[in-house]
Specification:
Strands 1-2-4 form a 3-stranded antiparallel sheet. A 3-stranded mixed sheet has the order 3-5-6, with helices on one face. The chain has helices at 36-44, 83-94, 104-117, 153-161, 164-176, and strands at 53-54, 77-81, 100-102, 123-127, 142-146, 187-190. The protein is α+β, with helices and mostly antiparallel strands. 29% of the residues lie in helices and 12% in strands. The mean pLDDT is 84. The radius of gyration is 16 Å and the shape is globular.
């Protein structure tokens, strides 16, 4: 990202423990919060962990400058979903279990597939899906994400999922409590429900 100016001493710091496929211009930073040990703990609690791919493009860091956000030219990114992941996600939907996306990249992949096919399906392609307030989510029930740059497509996605008021409230709290923002920052868990004081 353009806000990281220093060379990292250890390049593995800017990588998730579950990365497999080369091609992304940036790491899906919500995934930085997960370790192999945490994944094991989640699995012991019955949480099913599934993989999807979205190659983050450099356009993800480009701020929205249009007065009318619908005029913003969204960057295109490659995504991929396996047959097994699609089947497991469709079963979770049928059984009314929650689907929790780790990061905006996973969210865009899941929502792109759902928007294109009406269900989860093994596929790959490019997406220019721009998620902003008013978007109707069909794939996810909750989201784990970092605190993003103002005026970014990422903060607009988060605002679409929760609401602008909830996101502003969360950011005010983060600033007051000295949370870390952006790539190496803290995360939030959003359910789409109203935040209570």
């Amino acid at each position: 990202p353009p806000y990281i100016h220093a060379q990292l001493g250890d390049n593995s710091r800017y990588q998730t423990v579950y990365a497999k496929i080369e091609g992304s211009a940036a790491a899906p930073t919500a995934g930085f919060h997960f370790t192999p040990e945490l994944f094991e703990e989640l699995k012991k609690k019955g949480v099913e962990v599934l993989d999807v791919t979205l190659h983050v493009g450099l356009g993800t860091f480009r701020p929205v400058k249009s007065d009318d956000i619908r005029s913003h030219d969204m960057h295109s990114e490659f995504y991929q979903m396996s047959q097994e992941t699609a089947e497991r996600l469709n079963l979770a939907k049928e059984e009314h279990r929650r689907i929790i996306a780790v990061g905006t990249t996973s969210t865009r992949t899941l929502e792109s597939v759902m928007q294109r096919y009406g269900k989860f399906q093994a596929c790959s392609g490019d997406t220019k899906l721009f998620i902003y307030p008013g978007f109707q989510f069909k794939a996810i029930d909750a989201l784990i994400t970092n605190f993003h740059l103002p005026k970014s497509t990422l903060v607009m996605l988060v605002s679409a999922f929760s609401s602008r008021a909830n996101v502003l409230h969360a950011y005010e709290h983060a600033v007051k409590e000295n949370y870390r923002c952006f790539s190496f920052g803290d995360a939030m868990f959003i359910t789409g429900e109203k935040i209570r004081d």
